[in-house]
Design brief:
This protein is α+β, with helices and mostly antiparallel strands. Strands 4-3-7-6-5 form a five-stranded antiparallel β-sheet. Strands 9-11-12-14-13 form a five-stranded mixed β-sheet, covered by helices on one side. It has 16 helices and 14 strands.
């Protein structure tokens, strides 16, 4: 084997790889039209081919050997039609210019290398994955077998002499050169793909940052704005992020209405490494005060004693204004309620004094303390007394509601016997029951049960529920009470066969001054405060009350309270 030939071919292959690296450097970040870039790449490949042809191993005058077959076949494999054809035209033109006995062979090997490269590219999954080294080696063997076949275009028997001399070095060096150049381009394509994907992801991320409706920022512990997105710039009262960075040079002095807020924020960050839902008032670039809510975290990026803080910000000025308005409205409502309660308490007291006199003198007239009265006078005096009692009940209800709303209603629990308390209530209800000929029942699943409760309020609960049941039940109807123990609670229900309550009004009957029959000419009287008082008294005993009713079939009011 000719050592000089082997060294020359190795040198030529090394030159090819060196120029391949140069190509990688020059074209890796080229940014131009795709077709124009293909032409430029083709021209550069043609120049590389000429460079290789200028440093060949010359077997005989006019018969040169170099590595342009590696170059053109691999270019066809990786770069496609336009760069390969442009490069082949340039290489072929130079070979024709060189002339000699090997010109025809040179053109043939050039064309065959290009064709094999393009065909292999087309049928190798169209670059869906990188070529493996084994693939490249087989490809290199195929290309250079065809190259040796092209040697038959030389005059015979000189062609066989050339083939016998060059077969071993060509098949030893050229497939390896194909693998090395292919691997170099594989790496370049891999890096290019990674670089492209990275740029695309960066573009997507930047587009997300630029369009997200949340302020994003990066500040340094030295109180300088490093980076913002457009939304953060808008929040800070500037048109662009660059203006925000330029304006807010020392955010601790410029941005915060209360400098202590910045100190508090910085202290939390240094202590916890992050801050969540921190609210503070700031001054925009135009001097307008706004409220911000931020979530921020210390970055791992450190520069000496300086650290970075990355975070998100929301303009909550509108929410803050609503909160302030609600607080003011609440204060105003509480003050109005207090004034109303005081007014009702004072008015009730002022009404009771003359009412007690009217009722007292009416009773004196009925009792005939100062002389006899005729029948009409007695009826009139009785009407005055009854109306006075009714008005006193209304005043007492209003006074109780005012005490409940103002928080002045006292809760005075004591040990009480449930059955005895029921008997005391029934004594008061008996006249009403007899007047309407109502059938009345009490069903108790226990005897002599004692509970810890406010006896007066329990009696008022039962009185109000029974009064309503009797009032809304027609003549000869039925009212009954059921009492039982359920899950360590005493459950008492008052049921009737009265007019019932429409479903859409069952949720509002416990509201103050609310009645089922609310027309001005309603048949049934009352202020609409009884059930409101009942509900409050039940809740004072940590209990619950509910209603079950159907129009025309009666109602059941059921309340429970702990034993």
């Amino acid at each position: 084997m000719n050592t000089d030939m082997l060294i020359a071919l190795v040198n030529n292959a090394a030159l090819l790889l060196a120029i391949g690296v140069l190509y990688d450097v020059l074209f890796f970040n080229m940014d131009m039209n795709t077709r124009l870039k293909s032409v430029v790449v083709g021209i550069f490949i043609g120049i590389i081919g000429i460079a290789l042809m200028l440093n060949p191993w010359e077997l005989s005058p006019g018969l040169f050997f170099d590595t342009r077959t590696i170059l053109l076949s691999v270019v066809g494999l990786f770069f496609g039609f336009i760069p390969t054809v442009v490069g082949a035209i340039i290489v072929s033109s130079h070979r024709i210019y060189q002339g000699g006995i090997g010109a025809t062979v040179g053109i043939a090997t050039t064309m065959s290398s290009v064709i094999l490269g393009l065909l292999w590219r087309r049928f190798h999954e169209k670059l869906q994955k990188l070529f493996g080294r084994f693939d490249l080696y087989i490809f290199g063997i195929l290309v250079h077998i065809v190259m040796l076949v092209c040697m038959l275009l030389l005059p015979w028997p000189f062609a066989f002499e050339v083939i016998s001399r060059i077969s071993f070095p060509v098949m030893l060096i050229y497939p390896i050169g194909t693998v090395l150049l292919g691997t170099l381009l594989n790496n370049q394509l891999s890096r290019k793909g990674t670089h492209t994907a990275l740029k695309e992801n960066e573009a997507k991320l930047q587009n997300f940052i630029d369009n997200i409706p949340v302020g994003m920022f990066r500040i340094s512990s030295e109180r300088k704005v490093i980076q913002t997105n457009p939304e953060m710039a808008r929040i800070l009262g500037t048109d662009t992020p660059e203006q925000a960075i330029s304006y807010f040079e020392i955010i601790g002095d410029q941005l915060y209405v209360d400098p202590n807020s910045y100190k508090e924020l910085l202290n939390i960050l240094k202590t916890q490494g992050h801050v969540e839902n921190f609210e503070y008032e700031v001054l925009r670039a135009d001097g307008k005060p706004i409220w911000l809510l931020i979530n921020a975290r210390m970055s791992d990026e450190l520069k000496g004693n300086t650290f970075m803080v990355d975070g998100f910000a929301l303009d909550i000025t509108e929410r803050k204004e609503i909160e302030i308005a609600l607080i003011q409205a609440k204060i105003l409502a509480e003050e109005s309620s207090r004034i109303k309660s005081e007014f009702l308490a004072n008015m009730s007291h002022e009404l009771r004094t003359p009412l007690n006199s009217v009722m007292g003198f009416s009773q004196i007239l009925i009792d005939k303390t100062f002389g006899d009265l005729n029948e009409k006078q007695i009826i009139y005096a009785s009407n005055i007394l009854n109306s006075g009692n009714h008005l006193l009940g209304v005043i007492n209800d209003v006074l109780d509601i005012s005490k409940i709303e103002s928080g002045n209603m006292k809760y005075e629990p004591e040990k009480m016997n449930v059955q005895e308390t029921m008997d005391e209530v029934m004594v008061l209800m008996e006249p009403m029951i007899k007047k309407k000929l109502i059938k009345f029942e009490i069903n108790m699943e226990f005897e002599n049960l004692e509970v810890y409760a406010d006896k007066i309020k329990i009696k008022q609960i039962m009185y109000n529920l029974l009064s309503n049941a009797i009032k809304f039940t027609p003549q000869n109807g039925k009212v009954w009470i059921n009492s039982r123990i359920v899950n360590d609670n005493i459950q008492i229900s008052v049921s009737d066969t009265g007019i019932g309550i429409p479903l859409n009004e069952q949720k509002t009957i416990f509201d103050s001054f609310k009645q089922v029959d609310s027309a001005e000419n309603r048949v049934y009287g009352g202020t609409g405060l009884g059930l409101t008082i009942v509900k409050h008294y039940v809740e004072m005993h940590s209990g619950e009350i509910e209603v079950e009713s159907e129009v025309g079939k009666g109602s059941t009011f059921k309340f429970t309270m702990p034993l």
